Amino acid sequence: MTTVGYGDFGAYNGFEMGITCIWMFIGVIVYAIVVGTLTSMFTSEGTIAENLALKIKAFEAFAQDTDLDMDLKKDI
């Protein structure tokens, strides 16, 4: 089913083919986890910045609506 890339080593009996299938399945899982984690890291950075901007905008609106003291606003 698969080789190490040289063509002279391969799975020839049922046990070897089973181990090869399991090893390939584990490889796919590890690859998917790594790619998913990296994708999540890259996309979450933009999300964090957007969330911070929305929170600051909401705070500014709150401070304006409630006539919050300027010193208190700076402290917050």
Explain this structure to me?
The protein is an all-alpha fold and 76 residues long. It has one domain. It has two helices and no strands.
The overall number of domains is 1
Mean pLDDT: 84
Derived structural class: mainly alpha
Shape descriptor: rod-shaped
Radius of gyration (CA) equals 27 Å
Strand content: under 5%
Q: Could you name the ranges where pLDDT drops below 50 across 5 or more consecutive residues?
A: none
Number of helices: 2
**Which bin fits the share of residues in helices?**
over 70%
Count the strands?
0
- Assembly state here? single chain
Q: How is this structure best summarized?
A:
This protein is mostly helical and 76 residues long.
Secondary-structure map with pairings?
Layout: H1 14-65, H2 70-75
List descriptors.
mainly alpha, single chain
